[in-house]
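Issue: copy button drops trailing tokens. Both records pasted manually instead:
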Amino acid sequence: MAETSRFASLEPDDLTKILNDRDSKNTKNVIGVSKRIIGDYLLEKDGLYKTIQDLDQATTEDVVKTLRQFYVEVRKTDGTLYAKKSLITLRFGLQKHFVETRKEDIINNEEYKAANDMFKAMMVAMKKKGKANVNHKEPICPEDLQKLYKHEQFSLNTPEALQKRVFLVFVLLL
């Protein structure tokens, strides 16, 4: 009879896969978009660093200077300011990237205080310009809500439909 071990034996590739799968698909997307935006910024500014990989190799002081400028100068492709939540998401993506590549936390590390102070100042400026407001959608009208409840996707006949109905009710109550 074969004896099984209490502890698994994993290969380095298995460990790498586990590490790579720890972030959700959305988080990976946010990281990718953040890297692309700062990469575009670096190319357009034509400074010392041309790519995010160059920035990964830079001194902490240079990264702080770059982020400080970036937070103030970053714009959407049409030239308008990002919304407050978008800028927060952008910084989150960069933070995840720099933790991975530089082993530095650009949000909580004291060395990044100057960049974070500028980020906070931009949050205040954006609020003054109305970019911190949340644009709420129109609520679902009662007639459309009745249509949803009558639809088979929200019936009480199957576990999947019941789950969808409970989720809908939960979301409507928030």
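Record 2 (pasted manually too):
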Amino acid sequence: MFERLHWCLCETGSFVTGMHDTGRSRSVWTPQVVEDILQGVGDRPDISTREVSRAVNVPHSIVWRVLQDEGLHPYHVQKVQALIPADYAPRVEFARWFLQQLAGHPDFSAHVLFTDKSTFTREGISNTYNLHVFF
């Protein structure tokens, strides 16, 4: 045993064997896996990387690496409202109405829901806080 350790130390400079190539191998990334991942994101840009991982049956980290290698990054959707000059009059009218309501009912503002996190429609509530799209 000591002879083998001495030989290993002289040949490699280390007692550890089998450490010739410590770089991570990307051989598990077959062209088909890469294509399947990109197809999944292409079909649904809002899909999560975990969903793609389950669909393609590869580790989540592989999905992230493939997307990063392809230059795809999650983009957080942010809705903004652009104001135009025609919006001034309705806003002033609303402010006057709101002040009238406060004059008649001092606790009126306690019964109003102020939010910028969700959109309420007839179809339900849409929260874009955690919505990400790959671009």
